[in-house]
Amino acid sequence: MNRVSTNRIAGSDAPELREIRVGFMPLTDCASLVIASAMKFDEKHGIKIILSKEVSWASVRDKLDNGGLHAAHALYGLVYGVHMGIGGQPKAMSVLMTLNNNGQGITLSNQLGSRGATDGLTLKDLLDRERRDLVFAQTFPTGTHAMWLYYWLACWGIDPLNDVGIITLPPPQMVSNMKMAKIDGFCVGEPWNSLAIHEKAGFTVATSQEIWPGHPEKVLGCTAEFSKKYPNSSRALIMAVLEASRYIDDMANRDRVSEIISGEAYIDCKVGMIDKRMRGEYEDGLGRRWMDSNCMKFCDQGAVNFPYLSDGMWFLTQFRRWGLLKHDPDYMAVAREINQIELYKEAALQVGISLPNDVMRTSMLMDGKLWDGRDPAAYALSFGIRA
């Protein structure tokens, strides 16, 4: 990555809007927004972040649409889904930056474990043997968790659209629904996978970084109208969150960050449910423990935060794969509309964050498929299991 010199942006860069209402869900990866506010990185850049704790991703979507929120901690796929009009009226959207990579999980119930389903292979065997009606939950139909869950199931030969039932639940309701035996598994962000283990409801069968190491996860999203009307405020918001992200990625600060975000106003969860996986210390609830070098990352010298076009395009390929899009869009054009690369570059330059050499990146997923964004239409149709 190339570091660029710091220069002032030409013309007045004073924020047009000083108070910015930013929504978040009670998840570990809301940390950069919370820290930007709590440690006053926002005030350093001439704005005040007014945080709003939301009850569901549908609430985040609706409040962005109706102006109740200016911006939000949002699922990457939520922003792209809204822009494409999947599940509602289309609304032009913007991704200002990526907030984090990695750090999500798939949990199976202990009841499944007791029946021998402790990994993808044995889950497939159980389905083939017993033809049980299993129900899995994700957090939003076009969201990241739906895509990780579908991808993981399909890698083991399980068709998520036909072999199991899929429902949508807000993250904080996952564990309680599993304890009541209403669901057999879920895909969600932390700390809810950790809580399932703590409350002896389930075990981690896969982390999202096992599906796609270094995958994009949450983004700082807003409407296109907001980013165009308030470019200076948008830039200041990116700058504040970048500084918070850099602070969090100093592992010496992680315990303090976990303590802050565990508070009632944010995640409202015991810090012990957050801090270990924030440090990369994992256990699966079945006796395995490991240090994960691909744990949740918030900055990585800017490699996390750059809004790569290929990242956004990947979600479009999965919408096409699962029948959410009936025809191939102009993948590159859509990504260029949504991902605000120039605005991000200006903000990163101001706070000394490195920029990559390319707007695309290459990734290898768990099934050995290479994703580089070169032929998204062919990639979307290359999967044996699809709609």
Structure notes:
The chain has 387 residues and is α/β, with parallel strands linked by helices. The protein folds into two domains: 19-102 and 215-369, D-Maltodextrin-Binding Protein, domain 2 (3-Layer(aba) Sandwich), CATH 3.40.190.10; 104-211, Periplasmic binding protein-like II (D-Maltodextrin-Binding Protein, domain 2), CATH 3.40.190. Helices cover 38% and strands 17% of the residues. It has 18 helices and 14 strands. The strands form four sheets. Strands 2-1-3-10-4 form a five-stranded mixed sheet, sandwiched between helices. Strands 7-6-8-5-9 form a five-stranded mixed sheet, sandwiched between helices. Strand 13 (363-364) and strand 14 (370-371) form a beta hairpin. Helix 1 crosses helix 12 and helix 4 crosses helix 15 (309-321). It is globular, with a radius of gyration of 20 Å. The two termini are 38 Å apart. 52% of the residues are buried. Residues 1-10 have low confidence and may be disordered.
